[in-house]
Amino acid sequence: MLMPDLAVVATLMARYRAHEHHFLATPHDRDARMRFEDTAYTLCVLMGERTAREAVLAAERYVARGRPKRGPAEDRATRRTR
Asked: What is the mean pLDDT of the chain?
């Protein structure tokens, strides 16, 4: 299965948390709510989850684990291109 770029997920999680903080501070701000919901939806799509909660948890686990280790075939390909 293809996994999203770690940097993209980390950046999106930071954006999600910033929008969440702003939305919770101003719950009646329609634009803040839309930005927060759009970011949550993007996380759902990126992480392949059905709900924002599941997507955020999956993204947090993914970022915490860091980039997966490369397999032997990828190591050989990297050595050939250097």
From this structure: 86
